[in-house]
Amino acid sequence: MPAKTKPAPKPAPAAEAEAPRAWQRMLSGRRLDLLDPSPLDVEIEDIAHGLARVARWNGQTSGDHIFSVAQHTLLVEEIARRRCGALDRRLGLALLLHDAPEYVIGDMISPFKAVMGGAYKSVEHRLLAAIHLRFGLPPTLPDETVKIVKDADRGAAFLEATRLAGFAVAEARKFFGTPPDLPARIEQDFLHPWPAGVAERRFLERFSKIEGG
Q1: Integer CA distances (angstroms), 98 to 15, 129, 198, in order
Q2: Which segments carry the region annotation Disordered (predicted)?
């Protein structure tokens, strides 16, 4: 009777692959986890530096420099201030930081955000909540504050679209609504793309002024 063959030993389970890196090293030395961000790893200098180097409209704007997210946020805050009058600290910071997550995830145009769907929004919301907590804002803003921010954001988008990104006025009205009424000298300043260093400095100066009241 032939001897029974022993079954071949099962191969040892392969070592689990290391999880992909989900953190970003900042110039401040902080290491920000994009999936589980801590307010303790958020620094305003990192935000200013990053936003001053992230292009709005995927860089499809006129001028010698990109139109940065930092410059955009300052334009949004300027529009809201002219509409609402003096802003308290909370509203001023909410306006200035409304696009702050883009200092690590970049600025995606709205059509691509729609394609990405919930995954992008989830990361963005977690980052914004951590940023808010770092600077004494609630993780989720009141509806009234959100409306002020969104209205000013759309007004800024209208101006950027028509002055810098090649949109016709009728087309911009369709997507962004009624344009804000700004003095010519303000438009000239805020809609002339600044070098990155200037955008970073002006962002930090405005932040300091809002924080100081």
Answers
A1: 42, 11, 20
A2: 1-20
Q: What is the residue whose two structure tokens read 């970003």?
A: 24
Q: What is the rounded CA–CA span in Å between residue 40 and residue 60? A: 35
Cα(92)–Cα(77) distance, integer angstroms: 7
pTM of this prediction? 0.87
CA dist., res. 132 & res. 56, Å (int): 22
HSE-CB of 130 using CA atoms within 13 angstroms: 23
How many other C-beta atoms lie within 10 A of the C-beta of residue 47?
Answer: 29
Residue 2 scores a pLDDT above 70: no
What pLDDT score does 15 carry?
45
Task: List pLDDT tens digits, range 53-72.
Answer: 999 999 999 999 999 999 99
Tell me, letter by letter, the H, E, C secondary structure of the chain.
Answer: CCCCCCCCCCCCCCCCCCCCCCEEECCCCCEEECCCCCHHHCCHHHHHHHHCCCEHHHHCCCCCCCCEHHHHHHHHHHHHHHHHCCCCHHHHHHHHCCCCCHHHHCCCCHHHHHHHCHHHHHHHHHHHHHHHHHCCCCCCCCHHHHHHHHHHHHHHHHHHHHHCCCCCHHHHHHHHCCCCCCCHHHHHHHCCCCCHHHHHHHHHHHHHHHHHC
Scored b (16 or more CB within 10 A) or e, 176-185 reads beebbebeee
